[in-house]
Amino acid sequence: MAISEHSARTRLLDAALVRFAAEPPVAVSLEDIRRDAGVSVGALYHHFDDKAALVDALFLELTRGVQQMFLAELRGHASPEEGIKAIVHLYLRWVSTNRAAAGLLLGHRPDERALRGLNRAFFAEVRGWWDTHVHYGALRPLPLELMIALWVGPAQEYTRHWLSGQIKRVPRAVADVLADAAWNALKEPE
User: For residue 139, which phi and psi values (nearest 5 degrees)?
Assistant: First the structure.
């Protein structure tokens, strides 16, 4: 039975992520990934010119998934406090159960043009949600990069330390503290 093009690509990305969970991307060969995915050499090179292209594609797929998850969670919270805290909890839950994916997202940067295209719609929707709450005086009017840094930056920094083995406590275990800190940093002072 022939593997469909979409299926071969997905299998390659899935195999790469499994491999990267066990060893750093630099130590993994394309042949390892191809073999684990169960696809032909032709299928591998049809989708990816080299390992860098595969890693970039995996980064973009993971980013797209996290962004979709983020927006779905955000849409479910009319209250700015609930939304801010829910996103921190969501991120730390996801990181705690997707260690290899989190490591790739925090440690790799793909082609900026591809990432910029992916981020445009995502940040527009986040900014729209944010600005609604700024208008009603609940959130501080902040530039996008500062808002994101205060919102998920501390959770990302904690995650980096966890991924490197410097701390043992799983990120989701500190979600309440980091969610409260994000809310306190982002709410409009009374």
Answer: -120, 155
Question: Scanning the structure block, which residue is given the tokens 């900026």?
Answer: 112
Radius of gyration of the chain (CA): 19
Which residue segments constitute the domains of the chain, with CATH numbers given?
A: 1-48 (1.10.10), 58-186 (1.10.357.10)
Smallest Cα–Cα separation from 79: which of 45, 129, 38? 129
Residue type, 124: A
Can you tell me the distance from the alpha carbon of 46 to that of 178, in angstroms, rounded to the nearest whole number?
43
Predicted pLDDT at 33 = 96
At residue 188, what is the residue type? E
Q: pTM of whole model > 0.85?
A: yes
